[in-house]
Write a structure and sequence with these properties.
The protein is of the alpha+beta class and about 425 residues long. It folds into four domains: about 90 residues, Rossmann fold (3-Layer(aba) Sandwich), CATH 3.40.50.20; about 60 residues, ATP-grasp fold, A domain (Dna Ligase, domain 1, 2-Layer Sandwich), CATH 3.30.1490; about 130 residues, D-amino Acid Aminotransferase, Chain A, domain 1 (2-Layer Sandwich), CATH 3.30.470.20; about 100 residues, Phosphoribosylglycinamide synthetase, C-terminal domain (Glycinamide Ribonucleotide Synthetase, Chain A, domain 4), CATH 3.90.600. It is about 30% helix and about 25% strand. A five-stranded parallel sheet has the order 3-2-1-4-5, sandwiched between helices. A five-stranded antiparallel sheet has the order 12-15-18-23-20. Its EC number is 6.3.4.13. This is Phosphoribosylamine--glycine ligase. It catalyses: 5-phospho-beta-D-ribosylamine + glycine + ATP = N(1)-(5-phospho-beta-D-ribosyl)glycinamide + ADP + phosphate + H(+). Belongs to the GARS family.
């Protein structure tokens, strides 16, 4: 099988790495990819990731058997539809189904129809409606841009003025917002692979969205993650599939817009049980980096089964017992104003199975030097017998990278490794 991966981030690098580990995958291509991906796979120019016709033409010219669409914007734009219309298998939902991520209001509508446990919410179109909804929920205030915002369209604050300011910014862009009641408890990400009928959950992970240690600072696209979750309830995955993922997939199919791909279920483990914070229509970044590091089932076979509608026939997924931790190395000024163009040293080489780098915001300058090209530059991945060992491996990789002004969190997976993280009870 020849696979084409669409995207250029560390998530796509992790997917490429996983596909290369599948003995039935004969070649992996990426578009546009990045320097880290280019070291292990063939990269192809793709000026516009949302151009479905261009992606389909590229896949056809390469003889691709499977196209894996990484980011959300191409999915919402219908890239997977264009690939399927060209007669090529695509891993990723249709544009209609991807509205589960493309519109938070739509996702709430689906959750209500499927009786999925989530936060009470209000869809608001102007400042008066927003102020009334914020009064109804009270602090902490949760304000979400209804559309795609690269993981940074959400504000959680105790300040009414800050909540209204974020709402005003969303309205200024012509959008609507969703205001929700705050959900307390630790957050968990669970990726569910589905062919539109069958659901196969992957291992749960936890990510860290705030820029600085102790969950301080602004929201980011994610500063690190780990898996497994030794503190989580033993029945968590089965419970989420039964009460959240499967009912959602069933409702989408009932509406005539089946969802095939990966349903990212973002959860809060509240005292009343798991509640959905958000749905995404693709693998999450940085959680993918640790989840795929632990997966032993061949990735190509798994994604192809979801694309072909044969997931039910696949044997049970196999996982390694080892833990995985990833730490994001971010550029100076991220997330507000990332500095780019600085030379990176210590990031070449493939590493080992237990400690390696995945590229995200990297590029080659005219001299061929590796330079930063985005906010989240690299993901350092460590694998070990437990979270403490995995943390040590990941941070050793971080220590080997030099990038002017870069920053990273030092507390990724620390509480879980120390055994101080617990699930609140009613």
């Amino acid at each position: 099988m020849r696979a084409l991966v669409i995207g250029s981030g560390a998530r796509e690098h992790a997917i490429v790495r996983g596909l290369l580990g599948d003995p039935d995958v004969t070649q992996v291509d990426a578009a546009p990819g990045n320097p880290g991906i280019a070291a292990v796979a063939e990269c192809h120019p793709l000026p516009d990731l949302t151009d479905g016709a261009a992606v389909a033409d590229l896949a056809r010219s390469l003889g691709s058997d499977l196209v894996v669409v990484g980011p959300e914007a191409p999915l919402v734009a219908g890239v997977a539809d264009a690939v399927r219309d060209a007669g090529i298998a695509a891993f990723g939902p249709s544009a209609e189904a991807a509205q589960l991520e493309g519109s938070k209001a739509f996702a709430k509508e689906i959750m209500a129809a499927a009786d999925v446990p989530t936060a009470r919410s209000y869809v608001c179109a102007d400042a008066d409606e927003a102020r009334a909804a914020l009064g109804a929920t009270g602090a902490p205030y949760v304000v979400k841009d209804d559309g795609l915002a690269a993981g940074k369209g959400v504000v959680v604050t105790d300040s009414l003025d800050a909540a209204l300011e974020h709402a005003a910014g969303c309205f200024a862009g012509g959008g609507t917002i969703v205001i929700e009641e705050f959900l307390s408890g630790p957050e968990v990400s669970l990726f569910c692979i589905t062919d539109g009928a069958t659901v196969r959950p992957l291992a749960p992970a936890q990510d860290f969205k705030r820029a600085r240690d102790g969950d301080e600072g602004p929201n980011t696209g994610g500063m690190g993650a780990y898996s497994p979750l030794p503190w989580a309830p033993d029945d968590l995955v089965d419970d989420v599939v039964a009460r959240i993922a499967q009912p959602t997939i069933d409702e989408m199919r009932r509406r005539g817009t089946p969802f095939a791909g990966v349903l990212y279920v973002g959860l809060a483990l509240t005292p009343a049980g798991p509640r959905v914070i958000e749905f995404n229509a693709r693998f999450g970044d940085p959680e993918t980096q640790v989840v795929l590091a632990r997966l032993r089932t061949p990735l190509g076979a798994l994604l192809r089964a979801a694309a072909d509608g044969t997931l039910e026939d696949l044997p049970p997924l196999v996982w390694q017992d080892d833990a995985a931790v990833t730490v994001v190395i971010a550029s100076e000024g991220y997330p507000a104003a990332p500095r780019t163009g600085d030379v990176i040293s210590g990031a070449d080489g493939e590493g080992s199975d237990a400690a390696y780098l995945l590229h995200a915001g990297t590029a080659r300058d005219d001299a061929g030097s590796l330079v930063s090209s985005g906010g989240r530059v690299l993901s350092a991945v460590g694998v070990g017998t437990d979270l403490a060992a995995a943390r040590a491996a990941a941070y050793e990789v971080v220590a080997g990278v030099q990038l002017r002004g870069s920053h990273h969190r030092t507390d990724i997976a620390q509480a879980a490794a120390d055994g101080t993280l617990t699930v609140p009870t009613a």
